[in-house]
Every structure is written in C-alpha cells, then in structure tokens.
Design brief:
alpha+beta, 36% helix, globular, Trna Endonuclease, Chain: A, domain 1
C-alpha cells in the first residue's frame, strides 16, 4: 500500500472516529473540494481545523506547526494514530479551553449534551495479535 492511499484511508477513519466520539458530521476534506488548502477532515464546527496524521513515525511539533499555519483563526488540532493504536488529539495547551467549549457546543447541538462513548474496538489490534504496550513514563527501579 502506498502512503497516499494510507493517508486517504486515515482521513476517512479519522472523520468516522471524530463523528463517533465528538458528534456531528465529518468527512475527508480534499476529496470533496480538491483544494490543497482544504483541511484533511471537514467537520460541522467551522472554528476547528483538523490535520490528520496516520503514520508510525513523525514529529508532532512539525504537524502542529502545519495545522497552525493552515488554521488561520481556527483552533488547530492534530489527530494522530499509529497501527493498532487509538487516535490521539494534539492541541496547544493554550487552545484547550476554546477547544473544550467548541466540543461542548457541538455535543449539545447534536446529542442533547451527551458526548458519545469511544468507538467500540477502536485502537485494538486485529484478532490474534497482542496489543502494543504503552511506554512507561516512570519505569520501576
């Protein structure tokens, strides 16, 4: 599989995960508008810019810088996932209060204030494989 098709699949997967967890509509950005300036994932909330990274390696600060540059006045957010891992959200701490308010507003608009649970089975390895263990911040001893 080439990296372009993996990126497209990652964007579709991220859009589905965002909708399932946060609520509202989400879809791949470039497939509909065709513009290089369009976000990776277009969501109902026009005040959030999503950058998707579906890769095993990379630099989260480089990704965040790209999201910041592309976001304009929107809140820059990076969604990242490695193989057999859950989606993680990367956002500047200073943007966290605005993002929380926007997510709350979205949840109230689509679900009466209830944020749905995580996507069932999301981040779990395929059957028969052992899950990857997270790195320990403070190893014993």
């Amino acid at each position: 599989m080439n990296s372009r098709s993996k990126g497209c699949r990652g964007e579709r997967d991220a859009a589905q995960a965002w909708s399932s967890v946060i609520g509202g509509q989400a879809r791949r950005g470039r497939q509909f508008s065709g513009s290089p300036e369009s976000p990776d994932v277009v969501i109902d909330n026009p005040r959030i810019h999503l950058e998707v990274k579906r890769t095993e390696r990379g630099n989260l600060y480089t990704w965040l810088d790209q999201a910041i540059a592309d976001a304009g006045q929107k809140i820059p957010v990076v969604l990242h996932r490695r193989n057999r891992r859950e989606w993680v959200l990367v956002v500047r701490l200073t943007d966290a209060p605005r993002l929380a308010a926007e997510i709350t507003e979205t949840a109230e608009a689509v679900g009466g204030g209830q944020v749905s649970s995580a996507v069932p089975g999301e981040g779990l390895p395929p059957s028969g494989e052992e899950p990857e263990q997270p790195a320990r911040l403070f190893p014993d001893g």
